[in-house]
UniProtKB/TrEMBL annotation:
SUPFAM superfamilies for this protein: L-sulfolactate dehydrogenase-like
Originating species: Candidatus Pantoea deserta
Keywords in alphabetical order: Oxidoreductase
Pfam families reported in the protein's UniProt record: Ldh_2
Membrane-spanning segments: none
Protein known as: Ldh family oxidoreductase
Length: 335
């Protein structure tokens, strides 16, 4: 039997949308979630692709996500938009607020969007690309569940706390990076366990605090931050800016709310966006050219830009579709 099955992007969309609506999600939520899951499959980001359907249904059955959530948008200051996600997925809140937030950023030059009371499981590049597509520079972050030990510590405290940044370019794809502040994303750790694969060294410790390459042992112990104390400080910043500052759950609070159900993290997201043209003043073309010269100097050395792998995959899968692990496909269908 073939190990992989092939799906067009339209088939992947149907699979996701049908699974979510049959599970009980509203059409609006199912569409918002499907958009990101299929975008991740298209771009080759398997840990945040259709695999997440299993977690969405688990989160729903555990009563940790509102399947008929209706986000509420409030402009609380000229440059601050708050969206109460109504305990639904962050993705619907983002979708509903994206146009009015863009308008605010274009008026003010810079603005922040806070998404509160959201369930968050998605790849953060998707969120910043919403705004680079609209010509804005964007920075986004969210805490998750307390799985990661601070550098020098041995007990889980931080979430995997991703940070994503996007810069629209003069021509072509934006400059985007997006990474967990842990040494490995939880989604990748879960896929290693699912596929019985050993981890590379340096990603986690067991419950005795000893280095481990066994995904199950690391899940019982703690994941580590990337870049030691530097990743630890960035993870702390995410807890502060997208937890305390926006008065929402930190990663320990999210894990406590989860109550051992294995649901997706619950809490908030912060997006800060800037209008290049307002910042760049009289000679924006010169300023944009400075940015372009940095990108060229990177690639001229043979180095690649972050997200280049995704953009290359995107071009291929739009016409050729995607492949899905057969066992995963069967697990999704059996939902
Ligand atoms: P990766 O380590 O896979 O990638 C991090 C970034 O570095 C990407 O932008 C990637 O681009 C880029 N990159 C990778 N290799 C190179 C290279 N050789 N040269 C230049 N750039 C490179 O990401 P993570 O595993 O840390 O995170 C995976 C996903 O998990 C992210 O999308 C993140 O948002 C998501 N996540 C979500 C959470 C949540 O709570 N919602 C929590 C934690 C993670 P490219 O993609 O093109 O390879
Ligand atoms: O991969 O770390 C992760 C993650 C956490 C929540 C969603 N993805």
């Amino acid at each position: 039997m073939q190990e992989n099955i092939h799906l067009s992007l339209a088939q992947a969309r149907n699979l996701s949308h049908n699974t979510l609506t049959k599970a009980g999600f509203s059409k609006e939520l199912a569409s918002a979630v499907t958009d990101t899951l299929v975008a991740c499959e298209r771009d080759g980001c398997k840990s945040h692709g259709l695999y997440r359907l299993l977690v969405c249904v688990k989160t729903l059955r555990a009563g940790k996500v509102n399947p008929v959530a209706e986000p509420l948008i409030t402009r609380v200051a000229p440059a601050l938009l708050k969206v109460d996600a109504d305990q639904g997925y962050s993705l619907l809140a983002l979708e509903k607020a994206a146009d009015s937030f863009t308008e605010m950023v274009k008026q003010q030059g810079i603005a922040a969007m806070v998404i509160n009371r959201c369930v968050h499981f998605s790849a953060m590049w998707y969120d910043v690309e919403k705004f680079t597509d609209r010509g804005l520079v964007a920075l986004a972050m969210t805490p998750s569940h307390a799985w990661v030990a601070p550098a020098g510590g041995t007990r889980p405290l931080f979430g995997t706390n991703p940070i994503a940044f996007g810069w629209p370019r003069v021509d072509g794809d934006p400059y985007v990076f997006d990474f967990a502040t842990s040494a490995i994303a939880r989604g990748d750790l879960e896929l290693h366990r699912r596929d019985s694969k050993t981890l590379s060294p340096g990603l986690g410790i067991d419950k005795e605090g000893q280095p481990s390459t066994d995904p199950a042992a690391v899940m019982e112990g703690a994941m580590l931050t990337f870049g030691g104390y530097k990743g630890s400080a960035l993870a702390t910043m995410v807890e502060l800016l997208a937890g305390a500052l926006i008065n929402d759950f930190t990663s320990p609070e999210s894990l406590a709310f989860d109550a051992g159900t294995g649901s997706s993290p619950m809490g908030g997201e912060l997006v800060i966006a800037m209008d290049q043209l307002k910042f760049m003043g009289e000679t924006p073309k010169d300023a944009q050219q400075k940015a372009e010269s940095i990108f060229t100097a990177i690639t001229d050395q043979g180095a690649r830009l972050p997200s280049q792998r995704r953009f290359t995959n995107r071009k291929v899968s739009v016409t050729e579709g995607i492949t899905l692990d057969r066992k995963l496909y069967e697990d999704i269908v059996s939902l």
